[in-house]
Amino acid sequence: MGEQGIQSTVAAALAHALIEQGRLDEAEESVSASELAGAEDDISTQVLDRSARARIQAGRGPYDKAEKLARDAVALSESTDDLNMRGDTLRDLGDVLSAGGERTGASAALESALELYESKGNTVAAATARRRLTELSHPGTASETDVPHG
Q1: Three-class SS of residue 144?
Q2: Residues 26-52, buried b or exposed e (16+ Cβ, 10 A)?
Q3: For residue 149, how many other CB atoms are within 10 A of its CB?
Q4: Are 99 and 63 a contacting pair, CB within 8 Å?
Q5: pLDDT tens, 63-102?
Q6: Is the bond into 62 cis (omega within 30 degrees of 0)?
Q7: Low-confidence ranges of the chain (pLDDT < 70)
Q8: Pairing with 59, which of 48, 95, 106, 111 sits 20 to 30 Å away (CA)?
Q9: Whole-angstrom Cα distance, residue 28 to residue 13?
Q10: Quick one: DSSP state of residue 148?
């Protein structure tokens, strides 16, 4: 029947998983497929697309474009009551800012994400946000989940 809503969201989620693995070229293909299939009024897909693009851009530079995309994703997510999505976009913004060397902004974004995850009771995402905050405080303890460079 031509319905592609779930396809676009799954492709965007796949892009994020590929980014976590450092596979930026494949992630870019996946997010492009998501953008083609996604509807303009599908907030979840639009948020995932922008945040994935931001993370890909942060891995390649320049960071100002990555930051704009990440902030756009945060703004879109704020129009929803989905605390996990809002936390995820703030975590992604934190990662992008960290990759650009903006530790203060990254910490603020990650702290906001942590608050949202805790209010939702998402202990796994909260633990990830706490770990990334610790890594910002103690450089040189980078994890595999940092925004890939290259």
Answers
A1: coil
A2: ebbebbebbbebbeeebebbbbbbbbb
A3: 11
A4: yes
A5: 999 999 999 999 999 999 999 999 999 999 999 999 999 9
A6: yes
A7: 1-5, 140-150
A8: 111
A9: 12
A10: P
**pLDDT value for 40:** 82
Query: In terms of Cα–Cα distance, which of 130, 114, 123, 72 is closest to 96?
Result: 72
How much is the mean pLDDT over the chain? 89
Residue 64 and residue 58: Cα distance in Å, rounded?
Answer: 9
Residue 2 exposed, middle or buried by CB count within 10 Å (0-12, 13-18, 19+): exposed
- 5-137 in CATH: which number? 1.25.40.10
> Cα separation of 113 and 136, whole Å?
15
Helices (H), 38-140: 43-60, 63-77, 83-99, 103-120, 123-137
Question: What pLDDT, on the 0 to 100 scale, is given for residue 148?
Answer: 45
The pLDDT, as a whole number, for residue 145 is 43
Domain ranges of the chain: 5-137
Q: Three-state SS for 90?
A: helix
Report pTM: 0.86
